[in-house]
Amino acid sequence: MVSKLGHCELRRALANFAAMCFLPAALKTWLRCTLLSLLALALPQLRADDWISEEYRCALTIPTQESWTAALRQPLPAGEVIFHAASMVSNSGMMITILPDMPSSDIRTPAVLKRIDDLLAAQGWTVGSSTPIVWKNRPYLQYVVQRRDVVAGKLTGIVRVTPRGRSMYLITAYGRGEGDHSGDAEFMRVMETFRLTEQPMALVDHPEGPSAKTYRLAMIGTGSAAALLVLAFAAMLFSSRFGGEERA
User: Cα(7)–Cα(28) distance, rounded to whole angstroms?
Assistant: First the structure.
């Protein structure tokens, strides 16, 4: 008798499990669509990482979904490349170079212009044109440059130079092609995130900007919504199954 009862309970448990697994097709489709929508909301394309230099008080935001690869700092005879990274997805790159101990803080001074030209030449760039601009309420000198890379072929770049004290900051965005891409929003999108900070900031390895906060909030909200969805679905199955047994 015990054995028969045990077999009956086992069959009943297996039948209940099968009933929960083999759901109506419409309900399965609704669940899949709901979960996919929640996942899409949880992964906003604005996710990014902040690179911050405490020493030189500047920062840049890199989109992490593009797998940017950073290089080591590179000392130069006349300055230093403090940041250099390239994206294997978009075939573009970013550099920030510091020229210290300038003879003047005026970027129009001939001695300053010569040092900038010498640095660009040392990095392999050929200057096509230069234009004074105002960017983010600061005076900049914008260069359109080109060079040939063994692997990538023709590269074009936009270099923006601004003084800070007796140092010059050179922010370079480059990619495949030729010509002036300063009006190309896609080409310039990472350079546009460059900013000079007024106070020293600690170097961070994780996103701290508004987009990163949105990402974390979306992940928390999605996890909570998914958990509520599962609980509601389980309660519906439980109610329908035991309600049917009581009516029987």
Answer: 31
* Structure-block tokens of residue 35: 């979960």
CA dihedral 4, 8, 10, 13 (to 10 degrees): -170
Q: What is the pLDDT of residues 23-69, one digit of tens each?
A: 555 555 555 655 555 544 444 344 458 899 999 999 999 887 778 88
What gap in Å lies between CA 89 and CA 100, rounded to an integer?
33
Which tokens belong to 140?
């900049």
Report residue 181 as tokens: 């891409």
Residues 88-144 pLDDT 10s: 877 899 999 999 999 999 999 999 999 999 999 999 999 988 999 999 999 999 999
By three-state DSSP, how is residue 52 classified? Answer: strand
Helical axes 2-21 vs 210-247, angle rounded to 10°:
130
pTM assigned to the model: 0.62
Which residues touch 104 (CB under 8 Å, ≥6 apart)? 111, 112, 166
- The stretches of the chain forming alpha helices (DSSP H) are 2-21, 25-42, 110-122, 185-188, 210-247
The answer to whether 83 and 70 are in contact (CB under 8 A) is yes
Residue 27: HSE in the Cβ half-sphere, 13 Å Cα cutoff: 11
Q: What separation, in Å, do the N-terminal and C-terminal C-alpha atoms of the chain show?
A: 25
CA angle 176, 180, 183 (to 5 degrees): 105
Three-class DSSP category at 66? helix
d(CA 151, CA 165): 38
